[in-house]
Design brief:
This protein is mostly helical. It is built from 13 helices and five strands. The strands form two sheets. The protein has a three-stranded antiparallel sheet. A two-stranded antiparallel ribbon has the order 2-3. A hairpin with a 4-residue loop joins β4 and β5. α10 packs antiparallel against α11. The longest helix has 25 residues.
């Protein structure tokens, strides 16, 4: 739990199990004091059965300054050879990988793992920003100031006097602010707002969400299911041809995948997250097969597919327990 010193004092003064527990630590700041960055001084409080344990915390500004200084040191002439060789382009894959690892940690509901993966993302974002600063294109502080200004500008219902009824009005305001205040030209199509640089699965999802907001949507899941069956039927027809047209087969499979993504979107399931979980299940079950095949002195080959299928089913049953 994270509280300000003012709230901390109130907690410490309250009776706990009939007793007052006062916890002091060296260098405790004045309750009314502020840190050097102009923000409140914070402490982390762990509530145990009969006591309160206080741990002084770094402020966010000091913690980020430490990270920034490390990045600068790594990229310095006498820094790390590997880090100095990196460019924004070479770190693209790492950024995507760390993002998905963070998603996995969130799915695991593992705070320590989430903290570690978020740190990796902070590192890569800071490193890439500093690379641009080294070239004189923009600074790391420019990046932070730009996002801060954007957040304030796009939340007039929080930082200004605009009133909104719901999140739909918030999104409507954002679209208007982009054009009226940020000078972005209106797109020829609403779908032009979806980046072409997104991975295909994510782009399909966002394209469908954008179209659905404008009323182009199914009335019920049954309609999407019927469409999936239709698309799979076309795939089956193509596979039944004496001479398969690979280009046409690719097109039909793409339509089928697109429609499955639409079902995910309709049921409010993120397809990337769903597929990420499926990848995890496959990996765990396949590892079980490898382990069991090794224990029974069998080779991983087609001739032993029956045994591998049995171990696969065994892994599935174990996951249900």
């Amino acid at each position: 739990m994270r509280v300000s010193i003012e709230v901390l004092y109130k907690i410490l003064k309250k009776p706990h199990n009939g007793k007052k527990k006062i916890c002091d630590y060296p260098g405790r700041p004045d309750p009314a004091g502020f840190d050097g960055a102009g923000g409140k001084t914070w402490a982390r409080v762990d509530l145990f059965c009969n006591s309160i344990h206080c741990i002084p915390m770094k402020t966010e500004s000091k913690a980020f300054k430490s990270l920034f200084d490390i990045v600068v040191r790594l990229r310095a002439p006498n820094g790390c050879p590997w880090d100095k060789e990196q460019t924004p382009s070479t770190l693209r894959g790492d950024l995507i990988e760390e993002t998905y690892e963070c998603v996995e940690a969130i799915d695991e509901n593992n705070p320590e793992h989430v903290k570690e993966e978020l740190g990796d993302i902070f590192l890569l974002a800071t490193m890439i920003a500093y690379m641009h600063e080294q070239k004189g294109l923009f600074s790391v502080s420019d990046v932070l100031e730009t996002i801060s200004e954007k957040l304030i500008r796009r939340h007039p219902h929080v930082f200004g006097n605009v009133n909104v009824k719901d999140s739909w009005e918030v999104l409507e305001n954002w679209a208007r602010i982009k054009v009226e205040q940020e000078g972005r030209s209106p797109k020829d199509s609403a779908l032009d707002e979806v980046s072409k640089a997104l991975p295909p699965l994510d782009r399909a999802y966002k394209l469908q969400k954008k179209a659905a907001k404008l009323g182009f949507d199914w009335d019920a899941p049954s309609g999407v299911f019927a469409k999936i069956q239709e698309e799979l039927g076309e795939v089956r027809d193509e596979l039944g041809r004496e001479r398969i047209d690979c280009s046409l087969l690719e097109s039909e499979l793409g339509d089928a995948l697109f429609t499955v993504v639409n079902l995910c979107r309709f049921m409010k399931v993120d397809p990337s997250t769903a597929l990420h979980r499926a990848n995890g299940k496959f990996t765990r079950r396949f590892a079980h097969i490898e382990k069991k095949m090794k224990e029974t002195n069998r080779e991983m080959k087609k001739e032993n597919s029956a045994a591998m299928e049995a171990f696969w089913q065994e892994a599935k049953e174990q996951e249900k327990r």
